[in-house]
Amino acid sequence: MSTYLFVDGTNLYAAQYELFGPNKYICFSELIKQTEQKLQLSFTKIYFYASYSPKSKKPHQNEKLFLKNEGLFYRSVKQTDKVVFFTGYRSKTSGKEKEVDVKLTADIITYAFLKRFNNVFLLTGDADFLQALLSIRKFHNRININLLCMENKIMYQGLFRFKTFIMVFIRKPVFKRIFKTVQTISLSSNKTVLKL
Question: Over 80: is that where the pLDDT of 91 sits?
Answer without folding.
Answer: no
